[in-house]
Amino acid sequence: MTAAPAGVAALLALADQRLPSGGHVHSGGVEEAVRGHLLTDGPTLRAFLHRRLLSVGRVTAGLSAAAVGLTAATVGRLDAEADARTPSPAQRAASRAQGRGLLRLARAGWVGPHVDLVWADLGARPHHPLVLGCAARAAGLGAGEAALVAAYLAVTGPATAAQRLLGLDPVEVAVATLDLGAAVDAVAREAAAVALAAAPPTGWHALPDDGDPLLDLLAERHAARGDRLFAS
Amino acid sequence: MRSRVEVVADVEDDGTPVLARLRADGALAVRRTGPSTVHLVGTAAGPLDGDVVELDLVVRAGARLDVEGVAATIALPGPGDLAATWDVTADVADGATLRCAPQPLVVCAGARLRTGTTVSLAPTASLDLVEQVVLGRYREPGGTWSGRLVADVDGAPVLRQTQSSALLAAGPALPGAAAARSVVSRLLLGPDVPAAAAATSGDAVVCPLAAGGALLTAYGADLATALRHLDDVWPTTPVAGALHGS
Amino acid sequence: MGLFHGDDPHAHTVRTGGPLRVGIGGPVGSGKTALVAALCRTLSGRLSIAVVTNDIYTTEDAEFLRRNAVLPDERISAVQTGCCPHTAIRDDITANLDAVDDLVERFADLDVVLVESGGDNLTASFSKGLVDVQVFVVDVAGGDKVPRKGGPGVTGADLLVINKRDLAPLVGADLDVMTSDADRVREGRPVALVSLREDPAAGPVVDWLLAELEHHRAHTAGAAPAAAPHAHA
Fold first, then answer.
1. Which helix (H) or strand (E) holds B54?
2. pLDDT confidence bin for C226, thresholds 50/70/90
3. Which pick of B20, B136, B179, C132 has the fewest CB atoms within 10 Å?
4. Among the listed residues C221, C231, C215, the one whose alpha carbon sits nearest the alpha carbon of residue C18
């Protein structure tokens, strides 16, 4: 076995679901899918996670990879690109809530992303992928790693929520996540390649923008409820 | 086959609508059916795999253009390895309005189609864009489709969204997803679009966009169901009216 | 680590001034929400107070407080806990910190923020990153063994409230056993034996809270001007 490349510990930390940045109160549509009996067991969870990876996962991977190269001058444009890829207001709110949480942690962990950007440049409630890309940069990671964390979290957050809501066998949930590993790698690799090839800021129009009306629908149905266990 | 449609709508000083340019070649014809209305007419089957269709729409300051279709477009399989492409580019100037509501696009079993719609709006331009996609004819599995919708207002991103049959098929175990053979999207932009709260009705959702305007999406087992959901969630200007030439 | 760029890397670890943050935890039905309501009723004329609730289904406790009009709506914030109330107050406190920050932003004069946990078990306790002091509420009807059993809430809370003392004869609980067990496991930290039904003003808890507030102000006075007690609009 070869030694792990530099920065892997930081990569693991950013992808750790226990990282205290507020992710555990977001189900990524799972709570509403469970309510609507779309998601009932292991097989439907797998289908849901795969679908989420191919939409939210791709989008957040691309934005996170692009955010690694963010400068104070381009924050506004990438923020608008994130908004334009997130038509659902509930999903925008969830992304910004998690961005705010990760920013609190990143401020404590790193002095700043890099010489051309201070944390304050991101604003109070940036989209989560923007903060993730900046945190990855601060930790010495690159676009590929930032995309990988984003794609991975797009799967693991909802998986944990499903386990809590449905009382599934945790091993079954973990295996569902592991089985998506190659797909997560592929999504991250492709998204990072697009981000690296795109000249900021106007080239960012080419970043992945896969949308899923089902997730938009679930997000807005969920937001309209008064009795929610999860914030999204 | 390569088909290209060009329409430039303008308005004279006295307010008379004019079509400064109206031309089509290949498998599409375009007919002026009203002062500011044109209908697209398919003159050959398809598109087939590998066909290229381009629609270039320009609405100059203060003008209006309504684009409609006379029949559904049926994307069919064809020889070769390339997917058919169907790209719409629209440029809408200040005070101008584009309403684009062609008939449904049916992607037959085995067909491969990539659609793209790119609209650039000036700050006070208006847009009402309806896209209807049906995956497969009656009792037929759908072909392979991806559709990208890109909207900018004053050069700033407003919407970037790609939908695909691959995504809809990625969740075969999801009851709602498996039934989603028909997807209808409607993008409403401009100063006259009422500020709306997010809302859902059946399998339709209204998403107020961060930069203003709204994206409506509905899906259903068939097109009629999807359209009904769409009109339920946005009753102010039903799409049925827009489709049948109000 | 990133390059030094002017941001204070330790800004988050020192809470400069701001309101006293009080965690209120305890098992389901012990009287947490009743205690919060009592504190608000008794103190809201004198202090600027806000409440964050962590409920199972989001808003039930917040609705109770609103219905009982103990505070104006905008001073009550409900957070979702993702099906895991103790995680939200101990392991990942982000949603609660956001709620507190929003309240502090909205009401610059806040003296006290009460953070009520969702009903959880005896192992739940608040992170020090979220609250300055914490109260753990148990009740007599839960059995007089509860204090002896301990758990982080019972042993570690800054104040242990044993509620529903009036029910002791009815449920066969021995209050002397409860208080002496509590004193032993708590190594002298205060215990308040109350009945919120008989004493809706929650006298002993109010006294403790005012003392804690004074202590908090003395400690943070150098960092930010401590507002004098006052009524809010």
1. strand B52-59
2. very low
3. B20
4. C221
Pair type for strands C112-116 and C49-54: parallel
Q: How many CB atoms lie within 10 A of CB B178?
A: 15
Q: Answer whether C93 sits within 8 Å of A21, measured CB to CB.
A: no
CA gap A23, A153 in Å, rounded: 9
Subunits touching B (CB < 8 Å, at least 3 pairs)?
A
Q: Which residues of B touch A217 (CB under 8 A)?
A: 200, 203-205, 217
* C188 inside 8 A of chain A by CB: no
The highest-level CATH class for domain A23-223 is mainly alpha
Structure tokens at B53: 């269709």
CB B185, CB B216: distance < 8 Å: yes
Among A39, A56, A217, the strongest candidate for a mutation testing the B interface, having the largest count of B CBs within 10 A, is: A217
Distance from CA of A206 to the nearest CA of C (A): 29
HSE (side-chain half, CA atoms, 13 Å) at B176? 24
Residues C10 and A108: their CA atoms lie apart, in Å, by 6
Q: Which residues pair with B188 in a beta bridge?
A: B128, B214
C15 contact A CB<8A: no
Closest CA to B208 of C41, C202, A223: A223
Tell me, yes or no, if A52 comes closer than 8 A to chain B by beta carbon: no
d(CA A120, CA A126): 10
d(CA A226, CA C56): 12
Show me where the domains of chain A are located: 23-223
Q: Which residues neighbour C232 within 8 Å (Cβ) at sequence distance 6 or greater? A: C44, C47, C48, C49, C107, C109
- Whole-number pLDDT of residue B198: 95
Pairwise CB contact (< 8 Å): B200 & A217: yes
Tokens of B139: 């009792």
- Give pLDDT tens digits for A178-216: 999 999 999 999 999 999 999 999 999 999 999 999 999
pLDDT at A2 over 80: no
Distance, in Å, from the CA atom of C28 to the CA atom of B125, rounded to the nearest integer, reads 57
Residue of B nearest to A84 (CA): B159
DSSP strands (E only) in chain C = 20-25, 49-54, 76-79, 112-116, 133-139, 159-163, 191-193
Nearest to B114 by CA among B49, B179, B41: B49
- Find out whether B97 and B186 touch, Cβ atoms under 8 Å: no
Residues of A in contact with B185 (CB under 8 A): 213
Q: Which of A27, A118, A229 sits opposite C56 (nearest CB)?
A: A229
The kind and range of the H/E element at B87 are strand B84-92
Please report the number of interchain residue pairs, chain A to chain C, with beta-carbon separation below 8 angstroms: 104
* CB pair distance less than 8 Å for A214 and B171: yes
CB B186 within 8 A of CB B229: no
Q: Are strands C76-79 and C112-116 parallel, antiparallel or unpaired?
A: unpaired
Residues in chain A, how many?
232
Spell out the SS3 assignment of C82-134. CCCHHHHHHHCCHHHHHHHHHHHHHCCCCCEEEEECCCCCCCCCCCCCCCCEE
Nearest residue of B to residue A79, measured between CA atoms: B157
Task: Report whether B157 contacts B126 (CB < 8 A).
Answer: no
Q: Residue C143: its pLDDT value, please? A: 84
Q: For residue B204, give how far its alpha carbon lies from the nearest alpha carbon of chain A (Å).
A: 7
Sequence-ordered list of residues with C-beta below 8 angstroms from that of C187, at least 6 positions apart, any chain? none
Chains that touch A (3 or more CB pairs under 8 A): B, C
A76 touches chain B (CB under 8 A): no
**Angle, CA of B84, B88 and B91, to the nearest 5°:** 160
How many whole angstroms separate alpha carbon C79 and alpha carbon C116? 10
